[in-house]
Amino acid sequence: MKLTHSCIITENVKKLSDFYKEALQIEPQSYGDDYVEFPTDGGVLSLFSFKAHEELAKGSTIPSSNRCLELEFNVDNVDDDFARLEQLNVEIVKPLTTQPWGNRSFYFRDPDGNLINFYTRTR
């Protein structure tokens, strides 16, 4: 089995797409106004409109309500990314620290409140 996509259902694909384009520094692949993909080495982060999703599976999601899932990205230089994202005034949830297991990381939220971890392995 291979996990291929993580999909965020959102009420504002454009706003979230603009955010992730800046945060990930990846050009999104757009498939109309309702769906966008950000290809990464480990899979695809996709954004799908709540309105379009409702047509497929009515009542199955509630946008901007996530408080239990974290998206994690292994980045080349977490210190540089922290400084860059601080300038974008993102909500920092956990400041830049080095964990006992060796990852240097920080947590922040996207405009819909989803938790994101950027980290670099130090050992």
TrEMBL record:
Residues 2-121 form the VOC domain. It comes from Clostridium zeae. Gene3D superfamilies: 2,3-Dihydroxybiphenyl 1,2-Dioxygenase, domain 1 (3.10.180.10). This is Glyoxalase. SUPFAM superfamilies: Glyoxalase/Bleomycin resistance protein/Dihydroxybiphenyl dioxygenase. Pfam families: Glyoxalase.
